[in-house]
Amino acid sequence: MVVILTLLFFANTSCKKQTPYTNDAIITGFDMRACICCGGLMITFNGEKRPYTGEFKLIDNEADLGQEYKEKFPVYVKVDWKNDTTNICQHIIITRIARR
């Protein structure tokens, strides 16, 4: 009886569905501009693949994303994000990410 209950418990907890990501995005590269609010990774939500083109946002927490300087850009991802309200630069913080 205990074995059956244990198996049912693990089966039930391992089958939880993950909520879908809120946005498809493209990481276009590192921002190499020299200004007070520059730096980090550039990300677009409108399908633009070229860096510095059109509207893009800067990711403030690129160390958590597993991106490296040798990474081939563009990188197609699914993300959840929020505005970074702790600084004046209007960067965003990625809360969840996966490659598409």
- Multimer state: single chain
Work out the number of β strands: 5
Q: Note the beta-strand portion.
A: 25-35%
Strand line-up across the major sheet:
3-2-1-4-5
Instruction: Calculate Rg over CA atoms.
Output: 18 Å
Q: Please work out how many helical segments DSSP would assign.
A: 1
Which bin fits the share of residues in helices?
10-25%
Order of SSEs: HEEEEE
Mean pLDDT: 82
Low-confidence sequence ranges: none
Count of the domains: 1
Based on Cα principal axes, name the global outline: globular
Q: Which structural class do the helices and strands define?
A: alpha+beta
Tell me about the biggest sheet?
5 strands, antiparallel
Separation of the first and last Cα atoms: 43 Å
Structural features, described:
This protein is an alpha+beta fold and 100 residues long. The protein has one domain. The chain contains one helix and five strands; from the N terminus they run H-E-E-E-E-E. The chain has a five-stranded antiparallel β-sheet, with no helix packed on it. The model has no long low-confidence stretch (mean pLDDT 82).
